[in-house]
Amino acid sequence: MIWEAILLALREIRRNVLRSSLTILGIVIGVAAVITMVTLGKGATLQVTSDIAKLGSNMLQVRPGQGFRGPGGTRSTSPPLDPKDAEAIANEISGVVAVAPTASQNLQAIFGNENWSTTVTGTNNAYFQVRNWPLKAGRKFTDAELSAGASVCILGSTVCQELFGGQDPLGALIRLRKLSCKVIGVLESKGQSSFGMDQDDVVLVPLRTFQRRIAGCQDISAIFLSVKEGFSTEKVRLEIERLMRERRRIQPGSEDDFHVRDMQELVSTLTGTTRLLTALLAAVAAVSLLVGGVGIMNIMLVSATERTREIGIRLAIGAREREVLIQFLVEAVVLSLLGGLAGIAFGLGTAAFGSRLLHVPFVFDPAITLIAFLFSGAVGILFGFFPARRAASLNPIDALRHE
Predict the structure, then answer these.
(1) Crossing angle between the packed helical segments 321-358 and 308-316, to the nearest 10 degrees
(2) Would you give the end-to-end CA distance of the chain in angstroms?
(3) What residues make up the domain containing 188?
(4) Which of 112, 186, 278, 289 has a CA-to-CA distance to 364 between 20 and 30 Å?
(5) Would you say residue 88 lies in a domain?
(6) Distance CA 213, CA 281 (A)
(7) What is the mean pLDDT of residues 265-292?
(8) Dihedrals φ, ψ of 179, to 5°?
(9) For position 269, what pLDDT does the model report?
(10) Residue 97 and residue 59: Cα distance in Å, rounded?
(11) Does residue 247 lie within any of the structural domains?
């Protein structure tokens, strides 16, 4: 019975190919839009998570001030951090595996006739572990270089490319303001972050070198630290806040003049935002499925009117109302499902193109594809029932008299 109804439905669709194609266009667009939005949203979420992971492994950041104030915000007047703060965190906070105090300035890096404006950061070897940043070539700083403040540096891949092109930079001397530094290493490329920042546009020098030869003071601008696997970053963050309040002599009830940023919290916030936007866009796209359903209802009503005599003949020779109802309902569902299949193919193709255009991963989600296909079938049932019911309830005598 159902199989015969499907064959009859396919025959009617072939008889009016153009009309059937235009009818299912709303379903095609709706399904394609939903799949495209969800796929791109999941790709964006994965990209954000990956970019944050590149910043460091289980990383926390301690900075002076109360955090980001936004455009137009007042400049922080909080006192800078002290290198002894980093030592205290390393010695007194359990669960911390590496602590890297840093200080940075934007300077011109010069080699021969080439120059490049970049960020020069003074730090120690723990920085490579905290940031999960291996070397592509060369070596890290030695203990003697760190303690003596030697004139050595490690280049990010962007700086290396801009200054040296295809040449080997190891052993070469570059100038940072009045400081002449020997290049001892090159960092692996990390690319741009989700915030549009080129992470490879950096030159690393020993912290003591930076303090003595560039900054002229002992201040540090940030402390990067990595938490052991299995330890709660939230618990470590609270312990650091307690320690820093003690060291900076902040009275109970007074606001902190520093902030500790948990990168896992940042991941949760950004991924939560992208998921919410994806859901909203998918919901808006799903509205076109309802529009497609109205189109199917309209064309099925027209079809029932055109085939009134056919329905009357079937009822007169013994067909039951239920059989006529099933025939028209199956025809509506077949139209919807064909639109769903075409929409899935079009949606996946659009999502793949969009992923390449936006430089985000293509994430195929079988669940949303199946849901979109089933939802298209449900639209056919919902909007096809009324025309099918109307056709089945025709009086055979009136139907046979219909011109």
Answers:
(1) 140
(2) 29
(3) 79-225
(4) 289
(5) yes
(6) 53
(7) 72
(8) -95, 125
(9) 64
(10) 10
(11) no
Quote the pTM value: 0.62
Neighbouring CB atoms inside 10 A of 242's CB total 12
Tell me what pLDDT residue 70 has. Answer: 40
Nearest to 268 by CA among 41, 24, 53: 53
- pLDDT at residue number 169: 92
Q: What is the pLDDT of residues 56-77, one digit of tens each?
A: 557 888 988 876 444 333 345 6
Helices marked H in 134-262 — which ranges? 143-148, 157-164, 207-209, 233-247
Q: What is the Cα–Cα distance from 183 to 359, expressed in whole angstroms?
A: 33
Helix (H) or strand (E) holding 214: none
The 10s digit of each residue's pLDDT in 83-97 is 899 999 989 988 888
pLDDT of residue 82: 87
**Domain annotation covers residue 319:** yes
My answer on whether 276 and 384 are in the same domain is yes
Q: Computed from CA positions of residues 41, 44, 49, 50, in that sequence, does the dihedral angle turn out positive or negative?
A: positive
Q: Are residues 221 and 279 in the same domain?
A: no
Query: What local confidence, expressed as pLDDT, does residue 267 receive?
Result: 66
pLDDT of residue 345: 92
Helix extents (H) in 202-262: 207-209, 233-247
Does residue 371 form part of some domain? yes
> Residues 6 or more apart from 310 whose CB is under 8 A from it?
none
